[in-house]
Description:
Number of helices: 6
Strand order of the largest sheet: 4-6-5
Bound molecules: zinc ion
Helix content: 40-55%
Radius of gyration: 21 Å
Shape: elongated
Order of helices and strands: EEHHEHEEEHHHE
Largest sheet: 3 strands, mixed
Amino acid sequence: MAIYVRPDGSVEVRAPFRAKMDFIEAFVREKEGWIRSTQQKMADRRERRQVIQLSPAQVRTAKKQAKEYLTRRCEYFAPRMGVDFCSVKVNSARTRWGSCTSAGNLNFTYRLIFAEPELIDYIVVHELAHRREMNHSPEFWAVVEKVLPDYKKRRAALREFQRDISIEEGD
Ligand SMILES: [Zn+2]
């Protein structure tokens, strides 16, 4: 048997088809403390969630700023990491912060521009590190760590940013 608390706070219990109702109820009662604390956590998260609503003009401005800023940061870090890159492009990806092709073309989502500079630097260094290692092996993370010893903290903060801030495009 398993209990899930959904992001909206509702509870789902999965039990074998033949499980007795009083057995299921006892199981849920036993987990009540966990259910309540998880529901509270979900509620706090919903409250923290921030929506940034952008007009088409604001999206254009954000993309322009993102391209300029990200290019500058790539130019800053690349020589320090002993790598080069070919181009910096900006897209609108929602869940992917950046990518790097084997030819050295770097792609970033403009949504990054709303994150803290330390978090943007983490993505820049991450993608540039792919110029050395096209994978996420221990060797890759060693390249990242050499430039940003606290990269794990930044990566965790970026996950929080992704969870707590929603950037919406509209009119
Ligand atoms: Zn990667």
